């Protein structure tokens, strides 16, 4: 709709009243969802939200004369953006350990907090953790930071496991970002645009980011975080619609179903794949990490499983993050039971294929995956398994076959090596 899509970010505000209503209501809804006191829609990504949030924390400390508070404690399990943002915000990163269960090591945290008590600026913590666990000592952790004069930044990328059930204010955080392109329905394929608003507690509201042209943010606003006063405002319409259409009950149901779906997969795969971390009650939050390292003894790597999933019609889940050699599965509330079952059937069938492989065997279903249409329809077929096993390993695949268009292209080689693909100048010469 041109009325939404063709408007300039710096149009005089009285000419964009509809946008003002939507943005203000979205801010109000996000503030309520997080349990906080104020929201800024300015940051364009989660990482930018982290930077914005840490800058408000810095401004808060400075306003109290605590200009020396510059230590930011971050658990080893954190997303890479966390330490990067802390450094950008002029802080010094101190890494705290995680224990065998993937939780923050309380003894180590206590020690670090005490050492840095005088200069503690903030803790950055992801809840539920990147390991897919609701850390049960979270309130003790936030209290400990407050007792030493620090503020708590909660990385809200996993809000899909909280909305309507709990919130960052409840666990004692002071500021969080939300990834509207993760939890609130903005599609984020291809790198953008995203929206990473920050929601903050009362004491940080005055410092929410401003804009030199159009007034936004708090009374003592930090400088602009991005070019436009409300960031990627166009895509905010999607999150606005998502929240309004679901309402409080629908949003809470989304959270419940996201958690239920993850635990359903976990249960169906149990005995076939090991889940690396679970909470004390043996449950996952909204995602889980499946350990593929033991399959090395069958000569199978996590990448082989990811590629083979394509033959079964699935885009692979996250590979080797946050732990190398693992798959992180996050079904969300979006998938129905049939789809979850198809995925589990595929994983279980792949497990059987793994058992049939052995170290040194480089010519099997897993190593040759994915199988393209070109391979399967070729006149010659020299693999030690049938075409059907390659391309239609389970009956459901035949009903809606997805054909991968290419096989493997050296995996991460291109990410690590600069390769010039320019055509030589002669090619441009007229014939
Ligand atoms: C995605 C993510 C981020 C970064 O968000 P972007 O929008 O990609 O910048 C930060 N922390 C965690 C835990 C995430 O999953």
What is the CATH topology descriptor of the largest domain?
Aspartate Aminotransferase, domain 2
Count the DSSP helices.
13
Q: In whole angstroms, how far apart are the ends?
A: 46 Å
Largest sheet: 7 strands, mixed
Topology diagram in text:
Layout: H1 2-5, H2 17-34, E1 38-40, H3 46-63, E2 71-75, H4 81-88, E3 92-96, H5 106-115, E4 120-126, H6 138-147, E5 151-156, E6 175-178, E7 198-200, H7 233-269, E8 274-275, E9 288-291, H8 302-311, E10 318-319, E11 326-329, H9 337-356, H10 373-376, H11 387-391, H12 395-399, H13 413-416
Parallel strand pairs: 2-3, 2-4, 4-5, 5-6
Antiparallel strand pairs: 1-7, 6-7, 8-9, 9-11, 10-11
Helix pairs in contact: 2-7, 3-4, 7-9
The structure holds pyridoxal-5'-phosphate.
Care to describe what's here?
The chain is α/β, with parallel strands linked by helices and 431 residues long. It has two domains: 2-231, 3-Layer(aba) Sandwich (Aspartate Aminotransferase, domain 2); 258-416, Aspartate Aminotransferase, domain 1, CATH 3.90.1150.10. Helix content is 35%, strand content 10%. The chain has helices at 2-5, 17-34, 46-63, 81-88, 106-115, 138-147, 233-269, 302-311, 337-356, 373-376, 387-391, 395-399, 413-416; strands at 38-40, 71-75, 92-96, 120-126, 151-156, 175-178, 198-200, 274-275, 288-291, 318-319, 326-329. The strands form two sheets. A seven-stranded mixed beta sheet has the order 1-7-6-5-4-2-3, sandwiched between helices. Helix 4 (81-88) links the parallel strand 2 and strand 3 (92-96). The longest helix is centred in the middle third of the chain and has 37 residues, at 233-269. The mean pLDDT is 95. The structure holds pyridoxal-5'-phosphate. The site of pyridoxal-5'-phosphate has 12 residues, from helix 3.
């Amino acid at each position: 709709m041109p009325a939404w899509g063709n408007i300039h970010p710096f149009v005089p505000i009285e000419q964009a009243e509809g946008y003002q209503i939507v943005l203000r209501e979205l801010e109000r809804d996000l503030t309520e969802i997080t349990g906080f006191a104020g929201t800024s829609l300015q940051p364009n990504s989660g990482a930018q939200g982290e930077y914005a949030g840490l800058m408000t924390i810095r401004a808060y400390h400075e306003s109290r004369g605590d200009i020396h508070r510059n230590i930011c404690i971050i658990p080893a399990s954190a997303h890479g953006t966390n330490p990067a943002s802390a450094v950008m915000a002029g802080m010094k990163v101190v890494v705290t350990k995680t224990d065998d269960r993937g939780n923050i090591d309380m003894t180590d945290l206590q020690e670090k907090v005490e050492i840095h008590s005088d200069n503690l600026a903030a803790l950055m913590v992801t809840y539920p953790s990147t390991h897919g666990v609701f850390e049960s000592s979270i309130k003790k952790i936030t209290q400990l930071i407050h007792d030493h004069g620090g503020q708590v930044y909660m990385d809200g990328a996993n809000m899909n496991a909280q909305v309507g059930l709990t919130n960052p204010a409840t666990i004692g955080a002071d500021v969080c970002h939300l990834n509207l392109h993760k939890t609130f329905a903005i599609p984020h394929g291809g790198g953008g645009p995203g929206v990473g608003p920050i929601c903050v507690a009362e004491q940080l509201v005055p410092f929410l980011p401003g804009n030199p042209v159009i007034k936004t943010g708090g009374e003592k606003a930090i400088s602009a975080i991005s070019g436009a006063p409300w960031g990627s405002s166009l895509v905010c319409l999607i999150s606005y619609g998502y929240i309004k259409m679901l309402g409080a009950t629908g949003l809470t149901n989304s959270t419940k179903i996201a958690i239920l779906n993850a635990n359903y997969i976990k249960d169906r795969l149990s005995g076939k794949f090991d889940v690396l971390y679970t909470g004390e009650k043996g449950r996952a939050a909204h995602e889980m990490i499946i350990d593929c390292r033991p399959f090395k003894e069958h000569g199978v790597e996590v990448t082989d499983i990811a590629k083979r999933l394509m033959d079964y019609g699935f885009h692979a889940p996250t590979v080797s993050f946050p732990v190398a050699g693992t798959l992180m599965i996050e079904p969300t509330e979006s998938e129905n039971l049939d789809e979850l079952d198809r995925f589990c059937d595929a994983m279980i069938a792949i497990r059987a294929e793994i058992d049939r492989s052995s170290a040194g065997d480089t010519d099997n279903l897993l190593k040759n995956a994915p199988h393209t249409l070109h391979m399967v329809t070729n006149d010659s077929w020299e693999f030690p398994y049938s075409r059907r096993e390659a391309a239609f390993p389970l009956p459901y695949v035949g009903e809606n076959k997805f054909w991968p268009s290419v096989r493997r292209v050296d995996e991460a080689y291109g990410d690590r090596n600069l390769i010039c693909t320019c055509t030589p100048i002669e090619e441009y010469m007229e014939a």
